Amino acid sequence: MGMLDTAGAWQAREDAVGEWYQMDLGSVHLLVGVVTQGRYYGGFTGWEPAYEWVTSYNLSYSENGVVWSAYGGGAILLGNTNSNSKRTNTLTAGGSLQAQALDGLMARYVRIHPLTWNNHISMRA
């Protein structure tokens, strides 16, 4: 959240399944989708690709930061295919990836759990 189209990115401590990126929305909101990007960095010439992105992930969410639910029972969401394109996954209350009017889930906290990645676990969301 708040990192899309910036030079900064979240990077996992280790390139291993079990790492996660947590976002705090500040209060409980209706969450209808997740948008992700790979990692860019500002090199000597400004914006240069780092060739790092998450290619698939699971999502978990919570209203209080204590009790967590796995989205879609652990559904695998598609991630990015390059450093800069945005990937949107629409969320539904039943965990289906099919868009439905006024659907979504209630959450304050969201965790992205990378499953596969290109080069290193890095992302913007």
From TrEMBL:
Domain of life: Eukaryota
PANTHER family: F5_8 TYPE C DOMAIN-CONTAINING PROTEIN (PTHR24543:SF334), MULTICOPPER OXIDASE-RELATED (PTHR24543)
Name of the protein: F5/8 type C domain-containing protein
Domain F5/8 type C residue range list: 1-125
CDD domains per record: FA58C
